[in-house]
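Support reply, case 0932

Customer input (verbatim):
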Amino acid sequence: MAKKISANSDSVATDQLPPTPEGYAEPYEFRYPMIALLIGSGLLGLLSSVAVVALLSLLHGPELFTFYEVTVEGSATTWTMDLTAIAVPFLVALVVTTVVHELIHGVVFRLYGHTAVYGAVPAMGAFYAAVFGEFQRRNDLLRVALAPLVVITAACVPLLAVPIPIIAITAGFVLIVNTAGAVGDIYAVFRFRRMPSETLLYDVNIRHSYVYEPL
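Our regenerated output:
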């Protein structure tokens, strides 16, 4: 959610803002609606899970998801589940997706002349690639924001068809994790597209971002 700078804004952050470029209005703060994004991430994760399971079932049949054995001995029935068939692909997907997602942001930042820094915000459970202390063009940021979702989806969808269960399942988890984790990027694109194309953005730090719109 955007918030106009006022006397109640973080004075440390605003003191670090550069002079407003000629032809631009005074900046306002750009904020993410964290509760809405958490809900949105859960919904995207659910929808992408349904889509991935449907694709894997179509490509490999329901037997791909048989991770357990049922043994019947007399009146006793024993259920044995191979948790590694789920846990290992999920953990691999979680780590790989987190790293690759942010690296893709960083690569696209570099294509537009910026050097990204990488970090984490434990309180928010988030990792980031960001550019601090530089003006960034709105049109460039549209591509930066969308790049991980587009690239990782394009790379992983064909892997769903690989006839090796662990590869197909890991690719499915990557798609789910990446889609759910891209909710902030999707929100940013939604907001950026509503701004004039000449808009500039400036990040003081990971918690303070400002928007400069042309007059």
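We compared this against your earlier run and they match. Two observations from our side: The chain has one domain: 24-212. The chain has a mean pLDDT of 87. Please reopen the case if you see a mismatch on your end.
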